[in-house]
Amino acid sequence: MQSKAPFVAPGAGAVFQLELARPYRVIVAGDGARVEDSTGKRYLDAMSGGSMAATLGHGRRDLIDLVWEQSRRVGYLDNNRLTNPWQEFLAAKLVDLAPPGFARVRFVTGGSEANEAAIRAARMYHVARGEPQRWQIISPAQSYHGPTMQTLALTGRPGLHGAFGPYLSRHRHIPPSTDRFDATGQQALDALDEAIEEAGPESVSAFFCEPVSAASLPAYSPPDRFWEGLAERRERHGFLICFDEVVTGIGRTGNWFAAHDLPIVPDVIATAKGLGAGYTAIGAVLYRDSVYEAIASAVRSFSLGHTWDGSPLPCAVGLAVLGILESEGWVDHVATRGPSLRRELAEALAGNDLVGEVRGRGYLLGIDYVDPADGRSFLPPELGVAGRIERAAARHGLLVLGTMPTRDGFAGDQHLFAPPFPTPDGDLGEMVERMAAAVEEVAAEVRDELGSNLSPGGGPSSELRVLIVQHEDPTPAGFVHEWLVDQGADVETYRIDLENRRVDPTRYDLIVSLGSEFAAFDDSIPWIDREKDLLIEAHGSDVPILGLCFGGQLLARVLGGDSHRGELSEVGWLPVRSVDEDLVPQGPWFQWHFDTFSVPPGGDLIADSEAGPQAFVVGRSLGVQFHPEVNQEIMDGWVEAYRHELDDEGVDPDALLEETRRLASRSRTVAAQLLERYAEDIAGLALPGRRQDRS
User: Fold this and answer.
1) What is the 3-state secondary structure (H, E, C) of 161-204?
2) Which residue has the higher pLDDT, 384 or 86?
């Protein structure tokens, strides 16, 4: 069942992915704070599974065995008419761990459902008290509380609303109290007063927020003055305060709930991720006794539920997670180790003018990036700095999460840094080192780009940037290089066999891997692994790759296919059988190969011959077995160098030279057709030369 492909290409497979243009890295195993992809590469997981849920790390046998044992005993029961001891015990335990005054818990299956249930509870509370006009919610604009229609309405970020705007309730929002805009919190309080007045104090149901923000504004929390002012306004106007502790709850910030560390006690707390620790889907909503009693005094049921709410299996896991956190002391550990981890990360990034701030609590840390020109402004979003650092970190063997909500106006490029609680100190130190290396790598590029690589209008240069990877004694520039230059491309050649330097493929619009005499499956060649890593990262970053001959074979291999010595060899100008002659004409193409490959998973076979596959497409990349770059000058050099090998294959070298001269015009035509169709129809590149032709 396991694929060797390192990524699932955009549009490949049967999964309806959240981001349709993004290749998805395939992770197949995890152990502690490390995970492994389908190629065997291992990464330090500084994001606790990607969404901060795997707080206890990967592969804990005690929790895995518990799931098995609980499933054998009783895994599922509907809680509409039934209850079970695991639900009852877990609820009682959460009440003990919550801030003072909390008395009841309702279970759900995730964070969005928890927040939705909190919204419903606030509404039912006011209706039960005879104030049915209260429905409006006020929340910070730079926030995210989930993808359900009600939770999505809580964010003031239009980019997230998208096509769903007509379905969303019209709630009100206030700006965040970040150091950049409102260091004291007073402006946010003034905005809150204005929002309450506009809505009508008698119509406000709740103020909904994260005590410490997660992905939307990593590790940010307002100053105490804001929380104190919020408590005053609750007392004055009668609305509830709901905390979204989906991320922060169950130890992430160094306490059981982040609310413990603030000068305010909320009325409702929603939590989820850490409660299941990545071993089950469970969330919980905690209610103060006053909220529960008001609802219970007026109604006989609490609205609606979901199939798995409070079922034995997730509740048993939740109980075990709390037991492990207590018995092994991980919440106290996070409280103690968190400040020094933040300090180590800040020190490692100190002096990097791309870094504006390192902030956070416990094991929820955030990095905020700034324009080096003034040390304050957001970076130009077209540079995609957060995404580039995320990809650079992956090259260094580190998984982090970058966000770039610049268009919302309150935050720019940012990163979350949230490792599992039991991560050993050695791994934490290595995470910090790798993060600093990734940031510095991208910062060096960005400084240069900010100075020279932007067009007069402020956007990125329209020039097509191409990297040609070459790995043997250079031959004269072939037709592919000539064609790219004619298109107005900026072409850089990378001698990967000689240059031991790191190349960021995301700086290029196209990667071309040229043919070579070396076998694509011979890992004893020193630079093979470097080129494999380069192609894997390019594909994972949705940078199109054109693999020719050896490059096509290697591309097939790194995407999960095989390359190996074939049963047949082909030398000469030969046709191919093509299923798409607009993309790959029948030829003839010059073929000189003894190896072959299989089409990688998710790929489409475009052409073949008696010797095997000749061309395939995966996502925006094309791999071919033949040599579309061959011209007369290259052929002269090859025949001179390999005359004896041609004789051994029964090929007349002089006849081959004559045929190359005779087919020169035709070979240029079919190669140009392939390159043009690939660049525009498969890779989706805007060719500068084509734009000039059209104008």
Assistant:
1) HHHHHHHCCCCEEECCCCCCCCCCCHHHHHHHHHHHHHHCHHHE
2) 86
